[in-house]
Amino acid sequence: MDVVSFHGGETTGSVGVKTNNQIRKNPIETPLQTPGGDTVNFRGKDYEESSSAGSTLLKGLTSIAVVVGALGIAHKKNVFGKIKNANIRKHIEKVTEPCYKICHKVKELVMSAYNKVKDKFSK
Description:
Blueprint: E1 5-6, E2 10-11, H1 53-76, H2 86-122
Antiparallel strand pairs: 1-2
């Protein structure tokens, strides 16, 4: 078997990129062409993912929120309190304490908004 071909000029494997030669405008005038020789194509089309500015911004804000939340939880659980070097511990506290305060403030705002919505629907 010289050529393994299915559906037009497409070879076996994943769906390949169709060229203009494989697209027939009038099926009666142009005969179906199969690739010559012993050809097998296993390459699919390479899709380049293009991301919009909004999705990039959303991904960035989400990752920042995760980092701030993790540092806030680390401060609350006193994860870095076991560090023996007081100088390093002081610098870590300077970073984790504001993150904890931000998390606490966000929690208060979410709980107050939840209570307002719950009160509206409970009446």
